[in-house]
Structure formats: structure tokens, C-alpha cells
Amino acid sequence: MLTLAAEKAGWGEPLGEGRARGVAVHESFNSYVAQVAEVTARGNAFSVDRVVIAVDCGIAVNPDVIRAQMEGGMGFGLSAALVSASSGNRAPAELLTATRYVRNERPSD
After folding, report:
1. Could you list the pLDDT tens digit for every one of the 109 residues in the chain?
2. Is residue 78 located within the same domain as residue 31?
3. Residue 90 DSSP class
4. Tally of structural domains, the chain
């Protein structure tokens, strides 16, 4: 999954000034997921410009549910990271309500 996500994200291709990529890989319940995030930093602010997700969960009985799970997990992870970065607080109650920090939009396919 890591190789596929890196390939689809263009890992190794140069990015513009102030831009970077980060990667995460996880295995749970016999499913494997890799994500590559592209970010841009401008002064003290940054934006997450693109996230590429590769998943192997076995037989895809309902691909829409798999996509929703991956997008939801990405949103929750970004929310948790942004709340932790902005407040320095990792209290569970704050992380549970962190979804308010993610805009309700995504790039078109």
C-alpha cells in the first residue's frame, strides 16, 4: 500500500517552495492503509492541499462504504492534528469534537 500511495501521490517529484509531503501507514483488522498528504506552508499558516489514500481491505463488497470510511478517517485525523497543533491540548473530549475544524468540502474526482 505504501508503494501504491507514494506512486499515485508523485512521491519523489519536486514540489514548489514551501510545499512538502508526509506519509502514514497503518494495519488494523487485516486491512492496510497508506496516506500521503501534500501541504503548503505560508508563514505561520499552512494548508493541506491533497491527500492520497491507498487501501487493501480484501473484497470490496460495497466500495462506497470503503470510500466513506477512508474519507471520514482522513477528516478525523486531520481534525485531531489541527486541534493538537493549535491548542497543544490532547484531551480526549477536545479530540472527540475536533471535526468542527474540517471544512465540509473535498476536491472533485
Report:
1. 889 999 999 999 999 999 999 999 999 999 999 999 999 988 888 888 899 999 999 998 999 999 999 999 888 888 877 776 555 555 544 444 433 333 444 445 4
2. no
3. -
4. 2
The model's pTM is: 0.71
Within 13 Å of residue 50, how many CA atoms lie on the same side as its CB? 14
**Type of residue at 29:** F
Q: Indicate if 2 and 30 belong to the same structural domain.
A: yes
Whole-angstrom distance, CA of residue 8 vs CA of residue 19: 17
* Domain limits for position 36: 1-58
